[in-house]
Design a protein that fits this description.
The protein is mostly helical. It has one domain (12-86). It is built from 3 helices and no strands. The chain is elongated and about 55 Å long.
Length: 91
């Protein structure tokens, strides 16, 4: 189903969207906005998953045995490496 909402863009946003269309990267300004919203949706989902994982880690940490600072550092480094490998965090 397609919905046709009315939106407002700033002049720079509109120029940028038109530039993408004129360069052939997108077929229309609507396509540019759809892609932007899809990327934002994906970002939000990734952040929600990351937050859930961090909450789970904190819950385990609070209810489990105490680990050393070195072991915690290693776990954090592993998490960063996984995120960098997946492209969700800059190097």
């Amino acid at each position: 189903m397609t919905v046709k909402p009315s939106i407002s863009l700033t002049d720079p946003q509109a120029r940028f969207a038109r530039t993408l269309v004129e360069s052939g990267q997108y077929s229309s300004v609507s396509s540019v906005l759809q892609q932007g919203l899809e990327l934002l949706r994906q970002k939000n989902e990734a952040e929600e998953l990351e937050l859930a994982a961090l909450r789970q880690l904190v819950d385990r940490r609070m209810s489990g045995s105490i680990i050393s600072a070195g072991e915690m550092d290693a776990q954090i480094e592993q998490m960063i490496a996984r995120k960098q490998k997946s492209g969700n965090v800059g190097a």
